[in-house]
Amino acid sequence: MTNSITNLFNIQYPIVQGGMIWVSGWKLASAVSNAGGLGLIGAGSMYPEVLREHIQKCKKATAKPFGVNVPMLYPQIEEIMNIIVEEEVRIVFTSAGNPKTWTSFLKDKGITVVHVVSSVTFAQKAEAAGVNAIVCEGFEAGGHNGREETTTFTLIPMIKQNVSIPVIAAGGIANGRGMLAAMVLGADGVQIGSRFAATVESSAHKNFKQVIIDLKDGDTQLTLKELAPVRLVKNHFYHQIQELYQQNPTIEQIKELLGRARAKKGMFEGDLDNGELEIGQIAGIINKIKPASQVLKDIVEEYNTVKSSL
């Protein structure tokens, strides 16, 4: 399975594991890379020295390429970027910010840069900034998301006809059928988050993993648009948000309810009532916790089987 994405990252399959906060540590990233995909360490929930430790452990656990996902709103972004350079990470995915800010800095160090976008406009800006590829992410995805609520399968062809660099599709893809559909629409590869969150190597709490495999369609919702849109499981905390909205709250009141470390409390510590539980709509078809290598193998086998049957 050779194409522009496998060539860009020097990997076997054009499958990227999402760099999810509180979920994507070195164990998951190395397992995905060892299985032929591209594993990503999620820097968004790590202090700089914690990230350094994860990078070093990932290097020891795999000889294959892996990368780091960096939300550019991170408060210690300069320190994070310097650590990435010092530790000789060769691939960086950036998100939640202007790609112009760090792309040249990283590329000057020989690092491959990919930026996550949720619209055609931002895809074109990312290409103009010089990134090597883009991830087009539809609002089906878990975690922080685009305000436009554009779906993945409408976004892929629109972005594909407006940029000349490789396009990786994300949001609502968890199996081989989804991957094939994305590729037919023009994607060169796929990025998968939710399916890898429910794996043995995921650093998510076991309570959260159980929630993922229990979810049905309609059990998540995009909310908190006034701050940064995020897709959440409809738990007690989510319903508190909805009750607050009935009172036409100020931004300050919403921030007060959100507080600090909600995502850590839910996804990493396993507080299913008061934590922020971020997961994609596709969780409705995830029904078993598996090793990451098995997940990747299943995706590739289904992709090939369905493609050959058409």
Number of strands: 11
Largest sheet: 8 strands, parallel
Give the overall average pLDDT.
Answer: 96
Q: Please state the structural category.
A: alpha/beta
Commentary on this structure:
- By secondary structure, the protein is an alpha/beta fold.
- The protein has 2 domains: 4-203 and 284-309, Aldolase class I (TIM Barrel); 209-282, no CATH class.
- The chain is 43% helix and 15% strand.
- It is built from 14 helices and 11 strands.
- The protein has helices spanning 4-9, 26-34, 48-61, 77-86, 100-108, 120-129, 152-160, 176-184, 194-197, 206-214, 236-245, 251-258, 262-268, 292-309; strands spanning 15-17, 39-42, 66-71, 91-95, 112-117, 133-137, 143-144, 167-170, 189-192, 220-223, 230-233.
- Helix 2 packs parallel to helix 3 (48-61), helix 8 crosses helix 14 (292-309) and helix 11 packs antiparallel against helix 12.
Helix-strand layout with pairing:
Blueprint: H1 4-9, E1 15-17, H2 26-34, E2 39-42, H3 48-61, E3 66-71, H4 77-86, E4 91-95, H5 100-108, E5 112-117, H6 120-129, E6 133-137, E7 143-144, H7 152-160, E8 167-170, H8 176-184, E9 189-192, H9 194-197, H10 206-214, E10 220-223, E11 230-233, H11 236-245, H12 251-258, H13 262-268, H14 292-309
Parallel strand pairs: 1-9, 2-3, 3-4, 4-5, 5-6, 6-8, 8-9
Antiparallel strand pairs: 7-11, 10-11
Quick structural summary:
The protein has about 300 residues and is α/β, with parallel strands linked by helices. It has helices at about 5-10, 25-35, 50-60, 75-85, 100-110, 120-130, 150-160, 175-185, 195, 205-215, 235-245, 250-260, 260-270, 290-310; strands spanning about 15, 40, 65-70, 90-95, 110-115, 135, 145, 165-170, 190, 220-225, 230-235. The two termini are about 20 Å apart.
